[in-house]
Amino acid sequence: MRILEAIFLVFINPLFYKITLTASTPLIFAALGGVYSEITGVVNIALEGIMLIGAFTSVVFTWLTGNVWIGVFMAIVSGVALAWLHAWGSIKWAGDQVVLGTAIILIAQGVTGFLMEPIFGKPGQTDFVGKIEEIKIPGVAKVPFIGKIIGELSPMVYIAFASVVFSWWLIYKTKLGLRMRSVGENPEAADTLGVNVYGIRYFGVLMSGVFAGIAGAYLSIGEVGHFRELMTGGRGFIALAAMILGKWNPVGAMLVSILFGASSAFANQLQSSSLIHVPATVKPLFDMIPFILTIIVVAGFVGRSRPPKADGIPYEKEA
Amino acid sequence: MNKKIWSILVPVVSVIIALLFSAVIIVLIGKSPFEAYAALLRGAFSSKQAIADTVIKTTPLILTGLAVGFGFRAGVFNIGAEGQMVMGALIAAAFAGNFGSLPPVVAIPLTMLIAMSVGAAYAAIAGYLKAKTGAHEVVTTIMLNWIATYFASYMVTGPLAVGSGTPKSPEIADSAQLPILMKVGAIEMSSGIIIAIVAAIFMYILLNKTVTGYEIKGVGFNPYAAEYGGISVGKNVVLAMAVSGALAGLAGAMELMGVHHRFLGELSGGKGFDGISIALIGQNNPIGIIFAALLIGALRTGSNEMQFIGVPKHMVMIVQGIVIFLVAADRIVRTIMIRKRVNA
């Protein structure tokens, strides 16, 4: 059975684990963004659009300044700006959050496509503008197997995992986190207790802009160093699914993101296997795997999960 | 003001605000919005050719608009029109390549039927999962879109592939192609537009004159009350998704049978997504949807002309995005209008 042998070889190859980590990173960031927004009660399917804006802005500013970290910072700024638009429509004006989310995705796709030509002089794809350097940990790099996985990684990977720890602490161990969760579960009660429901919701949605913006920056200047139209390719929605399966918990969202990352790393590695020949035409079938997995997950075949009670419901103070 | 007036006023004002916003962006990139919009109008309506092109672009948009609008009426948000359209056209293309021996009276309805059934079945997956497990249709239909896209790309580079260059399927039989209504230069306008308008009438009758329509609207309006009144929510959710998917599949069939005559790699190009804007602008009303589709169709056609004077055609997406935003948060528009009234 050459196919089983090929699968086995994928699993003992450190490269598989390294690609799993890098493929999971943007999903972890974006899924965390989703967690912040939804635990305060605002559904945010705009993640895909916010990522796209982040990916674009980071490339523009890296290109202008030559500094990738300014690029990352501006990705956050643009992510927050777009998230603010979502917050404004869904919190202040009590609009339908799902429909607003699709509007924001369209706006992001439109704006990034629109500005490509005036800024970079050509549509479709920008030139290489620079990339966040991988950091080499000298001691670890020499360790067999492990060294090949984490010896030389993008700092963004570490930032992603640190963000999970930070978010878990913020949401479950601080007063602010308690308020966020109470606003998502029962805004009326929270309001009665003097919690500023609108303020907390704005905070949640804007934080989703921070993380989805970083997720986008990682896709462009973190991985390939350029921007391509619609380069997020549905990752925002996969992150959304990761958040749902992860039961609206930062750690759960991270674990599912890693599962999705592993599924694409697996497809990627199996195709480059020398043991079996995978024709290029079959590639799209492999690309389908994370999406099929998402449906199975969202349909609750892997265990039901319950969203925050007030998720998706605009809060209106009685006059 | 009563509900009817608002339901026309909100989308109209939203479109105006969106065009004003876009004008600002056009100024920012150093172009004249007047010239841009003039080019847009010219590109969409200035000649027989332009009008035929606009009608061709509008045809599938009416159908995806109806698909999304029908779903909305039943309380389901079908973001999957894109995938249903692709799957419908793809499978119909695989069959209709072999319809050469059938006369058009059989081949044409059969091809449409295949596309509609596939679209319906594909959408029903999301409906079934929503009814059975509570999986949100927004997430499942989006995932089904990606799966359809990759599946289509596999089919047209693999089993169905013909020739080299752009991935494409073989041409469908002549007998399965829609009759041409008008030929202007190289542009052939098929009778698809008539089918699209018939579909709108069908949706109007189904929703307003039948028991099924009443039940579907009941579920959309208040699922709890519907359940209490003896209407099965689950059954109607699946049914609504299936009808919605059938309309999207029909949109795919129109592109296949009336425009390209084969499945091309990039058949849909966002038409399913456009359906969302159209349903919202048309306020889920079949007649409103026809006009909304014409608006988006004209914007899409005209934007090519606009591109010639250096304004990227992506402007249309920005316009659509802002319109959807304002219709979803319709209180923004209402507040603006009421304040104007008070000031006046």
From TrEMBL, chain A:
UniProtKB keywords: Cell membrane, Membrane, Transmembrane, Transmembrane helix
Pfam families: BPD_transp_2
Transmembrane segments: 6-29, 41-62, 68-86, 98-116, 153-172, 202-221, 285-303
Record localization: Cell membrane
Principal cellular location given in the protein's record: membrane
Signal peptide extent: none
Membrane topology: Multi-pass membrane protein
Name by which UniProt lists this protein: ABC transporter permease
Protein's organism: Thermosipho ferrireducens
Lineage: Bacteria, Thermotogati, Thermotogota, Thermotogae, Thermotogales
TrEMBL record, chain B:
InterPro entries with a match to the protein in the record: ABC_transp_permease
Predominant subcellular localization, coarse grouping: membrane
Record's subcellular location: Cell membrane
Keyword Transit peptide on entry: no
Heme listed as a keyword: no
Transmembrane intervals: 6-29, 50-72, 84-103, 110-131, 143-163, 184-207, 237-257, 278-299, 314-333
Record's bilayer topology term: Multi-pass membrane protein
UniProt keyword terms in alphabetical order: Cell membrane, Membrane, Transmembrane, Transmembrane helix
Name assigned to this protein: ABC transporter permease
